Description:
The structure holds 2 protein chains of 2 kinds. By secondary structure, chain A is mostly beta strands. Chain A contains no helices and 12 strands. Chain B is an all-beta fold. Chain B contains no helices and 11 strands. The A-B interface holds A 32, 34, 36, 41-46, 49, 51, 90, 92, 96, 100-108, 110 and B 1, 4, 6, 32, 34, 41-44, 46, 49, 57, 91, 93, 95, 97, 101-102, 104-110, 112.
Amino acid sequence: AQSVAQPEDQVNVAEGNPLTVKCTYSVSGNPYLFWYVQYPNRGLQFLLKYITGDNLVKGSYGFEAEFNKSQTSFHLKKPSALVSDSALYFCAVRDMRNTGNQFYFGTGTSLTVIP
Amino acid sequence: GAVVSQHPSRVICKSGTSVKIECRSLDFQATTMFWYRQFPKQSLMLMATSNEGSKATYEQGVEKDKFLINHASLTLSTLTVTSAHPEDSSFYICSATIGGRTGELFFGEGSRLTVL
């Protein structure tokens, strides 16, 4: 089955420092990978996606993610963290093998940027 | 990006009553909508996939008679929690894709249901 794993429940980083939120995946076939951010009591907002092409994907709010096929990873990164980046981040994979085309989400990583 | 509107954002109801949550795609046609449930500090649990004009496909363990999903048009899907109980209290989120196999999901703002 398609799945993603986010090994860290919580990531703390000082403001201005680079941040990384980790995600590994397990898929059959080509992976369609996504990152979303969720602020308290809100829906999820799309950050970026990898479908094909360049391994480094740039997205919203200065975030980027690197697709690494050999390590089956899709880590989210930002060169300089802001306090406003504090939120819950979800990695997701889209299951393209059936007609439902469902998205499956990781368990989420809570990012706290410390002023 | 595309806009998905979800209403109501918060609802409080008494045990035994039914609650309807609406999910609308405002500027695109959504042939497929997804309903998720999120528990505090946990990930999203896919409840069902809703296709316009056909019956929803429920994930294993989700009671279809309790969580009624209707996708009557290309811009509207509804989730009705029937005979709600306190354990149904949760954050429910709908989402939709524009179409195409590589498209991302666009999410509603979620609905916080509290059953007293």
